[in-house]
Amino acid sequence: MNYKINTKNGKKYIELFSASVPLKAEADALDIVALCGENDTYLLMVRRDALSGDFFDLKTRAAGGIIQKFVNYHIKTVIVIPEDAQGARFREWAGESNKGSQFGVFSSREDAEKWLLK
User: Fold this and answer.
1) What is the span of the domain harbouring residue 87?
2) What is the CATH number of the domain that holds 17?
3) Apex CA 14: angle with CA 74 and CA 1, to 5°?
4) How does pLDDT run across 49-66, given as a tens digit for each residue?
């Protein structure tokens, strides 16, 4: 896993850039849950390259399973993915997700970080 521990405004979060095997199932999310626990943070930013193609195909239910695992472990998660890489259905799903307080999707790192740290 390629990640960095960031601290801003007194809050620590993990920024996951990529994974040797991109996240595609709930079991993969458990590795990230463990990483958060090891680093004593429950804030997570995930970049596009850390996610498999299945994550963006809502029919596979990979995104729902992975996000549900993070929610179950109280890990506030934000995904950074360029808008042009989002399909129409994924954008619609992301827009609904951003209304909650546990999971969000943003096209810019700055917006994602602002949401994550609020």
Assistant:
1) 2-117
2) 3.30.750
3) 110
4) 999 988 888 888 998 999
